[in-house]
Amino acid sequence: MTNVIEQIAAIVPAAGIGSRMGAEIPKQYLMLNGQPILGHTLDILLTHPRIERVIVALSPDDTYFEALAQSKHPKLERVIGGNERADSVLAGLSLVTGGWALVHDAARPCLTSGDIDKLIMAAEQAPLVNDVPQGAILAMPVRDTMKRGNADGQIMATVCREALWHALTPQLFPTRQLRDNLTNALAAGATITDEASAMEWAGMTPSLVAGRGDNIKVTHPDDLRLAALFLNNK
């Protein structure tokens, strides 16, 4: 038995400041090929035919969003986010009553429509566990040799990379399950670094969907230049 996915709402946590970029403005508003990073991210989500709504979680002090060309799009909604990613995702989920939630990083501007299609298809085709959909995430198999270091920056061990994946976004889950598991995991003091980690905490087994290698997250200044190259070659 598989699941037919309908009513997909995309949630974009965009309340952070991206301190590692060392910029004077939040990194999602840095210019990239003619528009802010967040503009590219919203473009792909707003134009995808399977996504009905796009909800952006913003800082209460955000003074940049209104200037985006996408800010008045009829599919776009906004909500005040929180201090942590999970808080912003929960704020977005508060506007959604059913269906599925597709959560995507604000600073991943190189996402393609094809990868969204692959993610939705994988979540639809994944077997149910006790009649419960398990969801799916985009990810990339680890290609490089992995080392575990100590506090002094010395190698302690080589880690087998077999079956290791880099988690990407979007991540796609049933709305009610994601909201409940995020809420309960945070209340229990669990470490939640992405949506899948909340589902794993609850005993679920999301599917891993191999995504494109150019779906990078802009975190450091070099990433901005790399993202510009990727967008120029799409």
Integer-rounded radius of gyration: 18 Å
> What's the overall geometry?
globular
CATH class: Alpha Beta
Mean pLDDT: 94
Low-confidence stretches: none
Into which percent range does the helicity of residues fall? 25-40%
Distance, first to last CA: 36 Å
- Under CATH, the topology can be stated as Spore Coat Polysaccharide Biosynthesis Protein SpsA, Chain A
Structural class: alpha/beta
Number of domains: 1
Q: Output the number of helix runs.
A: 6
Please write the string of helix (H) and strand (E) elements.
EEEHEEHEHEEEEHHEH
Essential attributes:
27% helix; Spore Coat Polysaccharide Biosynthesis Protein SpsA, Chain A; 234 residues; two-stranded antiparallel sheet; alpha/beta
Briefly characterize the structure.
InterPro entries: IspD (IPR001228), IspD/TarI (IPR034683), IspD/TarI_cytidylyltransf_bact (IPR050088), Nucleotide-diphossugar_trans (IPR029044). This protein has 234 residues and is α/β, with parallel strands linked by helices.
Task: Please provide a written account of the structure.
- Helices cover 27% and strands 24% of the residues.
- It has 234 residues and is α/β, with parallel strands linked by helices.
- It has one domain (8-232): Spore Coat Polysaccharide Biosynthesis Protein SpsA, Chain A.
- The chain has a 7-stranded mixed β-sheet, sandwiched between helices.
- Helix 4 (175-187) packs across helix 5 (195-201).
- The radius of gyration is 18 Å and the shape is globular.
